[in-house]
Amino acid sequence: MSDSNSDLTALYRNGILVLVLVAIALIVHNIFGQNGYLASRRQQKEFQLLQQQILQLQEENEELEKENRALKSDPAAIERKAREDLHLAKPGEKIYTVPGREGQKAGGSKPVGSSQ
User: pTM for this structure?
Assistant: First the structure.
């Protein structure tokens, strides 16, 4: 009878040990697995970063559309763009460029001086 009792106790202990190991394995899998907690957090951060980039690009797109509309209809905007990007001047004007300021805009140096 005591032999049977020790077999049941050993079986009970082994069963609990197996259950504990399975529970630990499941917890580790839920944290570190392919679709686990850490992967989910990483995806959330990436999603937030992409959302911020989308907002930034939408704002930039709105600014470019605004500039495009102005260049289609506003002569002052056309003149400003021609002066800044193409370094054009009216007859009789001289354009002075400051060497240290090159590369500030995509178009290169910026005109500094104006008419005589």
Answer: 0.53
